[in-house]
Amino acid sequence: MPEIKFINVSKYYNKGLVKAVDNLDLTIYDGEYLSLLGPSGCGKTTTLRMIAGLILPTSGQIKWDGKPIQHLSAAERDVGYVFQQFAIFPHLNVWDNIAFGAQVREYSTIEIEDIVKEKMSIVGLTEKANRYPTTLGAADLQRIGIARVLATGAQTLLLDEPMGALDYKIREKFQDELLGIVKKLELTAIHVTHDQSEAMAISDRIGVMKKGRMIQLGSPNDLLFNPTQIFTAHFIGESDFVEGVISNISDEIITVELSGDEKIIVPRNGQVRINPVLQKKVVVGFRREFCTIIDFDEELSGQNNILSGTVLSDRFLGEKRRTVVNIDYGRLIEIKRDPLEKSYTKGEMVMISIPTGNAFLFSKPQNGLEDALSVT
Ligand code: ADP
Ligand code: MG
Prior knowledge:
- The chain is of the alpha+beta class.
- The protein has helices spanning 44-52, 94-103, 109-122, 138-151, 168-184, 196-202, 220-225, 230-235, 369-373, and strands spanning 4-13, 18-28, 33-37, 59-64, 67-68, 79-82, 156-160, 188-193, 205-210, 213-218, 239-249, 253-258, 263-267, 271-272, 281-287, 292-295, 306-316, 321-327, 332-337, 349-353, 360-363.
- Helix 2 crosses helix 3, helix 2 (94-103) runs parallel beside helix 4 and helix 3 (109-122) crosses helix 4 (138-151).
- Magnesium ion is lined by residues 44-45.
């Protein structure tokens, strides 16, 4: 499989008013499982369609193994497109649906038979060869879609929200299957999703996109534990953010004073994305699951990494308890807690404790925090 390289690629619509993809630089390596993750409208599908050759970039270049490919038609690119809405023929059984993939190439009848058998077995549909789509569940329909694309001989799979129509409960199993197939056949997969847990579970690398731009590209671990951008920390895992000003810097500790009297300290060798000597206005981010809620205690007030506020809601979500606290100067902080922990009632004064070393320090974005967090 070739290495696919985007060099400064943009795709604009409506005379440049819509920047569907904006100056994208991206290299997709042979054999990797790469996900493009981002909110609806951020340019994921447009990126896939440019790889497939279904649309051409407005500017920039896409190269395969260093060679420009704009002259290659979709059919010549050796990629297979798997859609969210299954592109299945309702009047054909499983076998014939998959065979269609092989028939678009000039294989002999015998070759086609071997190919269909093999692909059917890979996706686990051998027992259902004679079944018709109306008798199959959503996961099987998508298995047909994948087998058909494999039957074309495609070495690169382009998967556009391939689990969007699947029930939540079978998604995890389907993720395992899909990843297993891609790795076993040594394919390259480019998988588009807006579901961060799906991207985290399945990818070698994830590109987080927003408004046509690549915000951060890295391994799931990288994005979770080393977010370089506010949007990454917001979109991957669950974080909350508060604004503040750096009030003190020692050899080891940066102290941030928030709009209330509260202080959050961040180790200098921790998740610091700024030069604390030059930039004073900052945004502090912290992961919800690492924070704890404690009873209000006057004595703790003013201590580092303690925020105080009133409970807005405290609800059971099954696996987790979600507690929303309105901190003094009007920001809502959500904490995910163990469901067995103490419950709080609306209006109750509480404190949020943020473990030292847990916070991320970013510079205050030019257009403000809300803009940096916004998904559109
Ligand atoms: P995603 O797949 O991440 O949801 P898309 O790549 O489909 O996003 O779209 C990115 C942006 O480009 C959106 O604002 C969308 O409305 C716009 N867009 C996509 N295709 C077209 C088109 N053919 N004409 C005009 N605008 C388009
Ligand atoms: Mg899309």
